[in-house]
């Protein structure tokens, strides 16, 4: 018997903050993939990775969220998401990947008004847990990069 008021989220950590992406959007999780730079790309785009012969754009969520860069001695993890609208995979570079968590729709809260504009643009609410907040990431919104800001 399934409960439709629950959702499974793949969790990931960026600068100690826990984010979740619906498990149905996650295609793969990789440990420290080699990234290849893309000339003239916005800073959020770390480069591309080779995923079993397929070129995948890698987005550094630290840069996307306006956080300080990762220490050079720390290796990133990679969450491959595939959006149904395009069928195209993208890689989110994160600090750590957590577990798959099942959360109840009853515990969902909208973004607080104190959340910064950059974070509100990619977060679709949160769940309060004993371990802290779990921010729900909108993967499609996280892929929206402001190229006009880059040209200025």
Task: Tell me briefly what this model is.
The chain is mainly beta and 152 residues long. Helices cover 12% and strands 47% of the residues.
Describe the structure.
The protein is mostly beta strands and 152 residues long. The protein has one domain: Beta Barrel (OB fold (Dihydrolipoamide Acetyltransferase, E2P)), CATH 2.40.50. Helices cover 12% and strands 47% of the residues. It contains 4 helices and 11 strands, in the order βββββαββββαββαα. A 6-stranded mixed β-sheet has the order 8-1-2-11-10-9.
Which blocks of ≥5 consecutive residues have pLDDT under 50?
Answer: 147-152
Cα-atom radius of gyration: 15 Å
Structural class: mainly beta
Instruction: Give the end-to-end Cα distance, rounded to a whole number of Å.
Output: 54 Å
Number of strand elements: 11
CATH class: Mainly Beta
The overall average pLDDT, rounded, is 87
| Helix-residue proportion | 10-25%
Identify the overall geometry.
Answer: globular
Counting DSSP H or I runs of 4 or more residues, the number of helices is 4
Strands side by side in the biggest sheet: 8-1-2-11-10-9
CATH superfamily annotation: CheA-289, Domain 4
Q: Could you say what the CATH topology is called? A: OB fold (Dihydrolipoamide Acetyltransferase, E2P)
Tally of discrete structural domains:
1
Largest sheet: 6 strands, mixed
CATH architecture grouping: Beta Barrel
Proportion in β-strands: over 45%
Order of helices and strands: EEEEEHEEEEHEEHH
